[in-house]
Every structure is written in C-alpha cells, then in structure tokens.
Amino acid sequence: MRAQRLAMTALAIPAGLLITGCDPDCGNPARLDGNYDVWQNVADASEVNGENLSAYPYEDTVFNGASDWSVKWVPGDSSFQLAINDQPFTGASYKESETACNTFTLLFDGSYETEPGSVHALTWEGELTWYGDELSGNYTYTDTWTNDLTGTSGSINVPDGVFVGSLASD
Predict the structure, then answer these.
(1) Is residue 22 a part of any domain in this protein?
(2) Is the sign of the CA dihedral 91, 80, 123, 146 positive or negative?
(3) Burial track 1-26 (b if 16+ CB lie within 10 A, e otherwise)
(4) Quick one: which of 42, 41, 32 has its CA closest to 133?
(5) Residues in contact with 56: Cβ distance below 8 Å, sequence separation at least 6, in sequence order
(6) What mean pLDDT is reported for the chain?
(7) Cross-strand bridge partners of residue 154
(8) CB-CB neighbours of 116 under 10 Å
(9) What is the percentage of the chain residues whose pLDDT exceeds 90?
C-alpha cells in the first residue's frame, strides 16, 4: 500500500508543478508538520563517488529507498525537529525561497545508525516544494561511515537525488 501511494505521488507531482504559487499559510513553516512516507533515489548512479563504495550499506540508508519522516517546526529555534525512521535530527535548517513561498531548502546533519555497528556522519540538503500533503524535489547527500563489527569504513557523495514524500495516513 505504501509503495502504491508513493508511486501515485511520483506521477501526481508533475501536475502540481503548475500550481506552486503562494498560499495563505506562506510564512508559517509549521504548515509542513506531520509524518511523511518518503521515497528517495539517486538521480544518476554514475555520479556517486566516495571511498569503499562496494561495502556501503545502501539498503539501510536515509537517502536510498523508503523511509518514514516526522517533521515538526520549532518556532523558538527557527528550525525543524526531524526524525527519520525514529532516529532524531535536531536543528534541521529551513530557508524559504524568495520567489516561491512553497519552495524551500532543508538542511540537516548528524549521526545515523543503520545496522548494528554501522554509524554514519551525514549531511543532507534538499531543495523541496510543498503541495499541501506532498513534498518533492532534489537533494544532495554526503556520508562518512564506519562499521565496527565488520571493520569497514568509507564515504559517499550523492550529488543529485530525487525526493518524494506524502503525508502518512496514520
């Protein structure tokens, strides 16, 4: 069901590109608050670079595939409280576009654990557009990781990824 919803969202978003103008909620980032079913994938795998990519745990990362995002605006900090698959990231910065209020930059960094022993120090930055109950756009991702159990480590740089998110129907 989740995969079907995300697939339908991916088809519906291009039509929404025609209606990205400002709405009455512009200027209130709390309009984005909620739980999102997110699908992310690399736009061009040939552009991904880094060290020890063959050992990278692609299937468990925050930038590749399905994940659950919880987004909550923190007015006093002018930032978002963000959790991805229940792992928190505090201080996710938000900068609204000067020309289209539903388009914004979201930037966060922090530590993320994927599998036992595998820890990632990551930075994620996305240029996203909000469509009421959908988010879409592009992102960049960098990550330096270590896995103490396997003795492996490396880094990855994703210069262009595609992001699609739909408000979850809790």
Answers:
(1) no
(2) positive
(3) eeeeebeebeeebeebeeeeeeeeee
(4) 32
(5) 50, 145, 154, 156
(6) 85
(7) 145
(8) 8
(9) 62
With residues binned 3-state (H G I as helix, E B as strand, rest as coil), the percentages for the chain, rounded to 5, are 20, 55, 30
| CATH code of 82's domain | 2.40.128
Q: 40 is written with which tokens?
A: 């992310």
Domain that holds residue 142: 2-14+29-167
The Cα–Cα gap between 73 and 94 comes to 9
17: pLDDT confidence band, cut at 50, 70 and 90?
very low
Does residue 48 belong to any structural domain of this protein? yes
Q: Sorting pLDDT into bands at 50, 70 and 90, what band is 6?
A: very low
Taking 70 as the threshold, does the pLDDT of residue 11 lie above it?
no
21 falls within a domain: no
How do residues 59-75 score in pLDDT, each as one tens digit?
778 888 999 999 999 98
- Number of domains the chain contains: 1
Q: What is the pLDDT, as a whole number, of residue 5? A: 46
8: pLDDT strictly greater than 90: no
Is residue 19 included in any domain, yes or no?
Answer: no
Q: From CA 8, how far away is CA 1, in angstroms rounded?
A: 11
Residue 103, token pair as written in the block: 């388009």
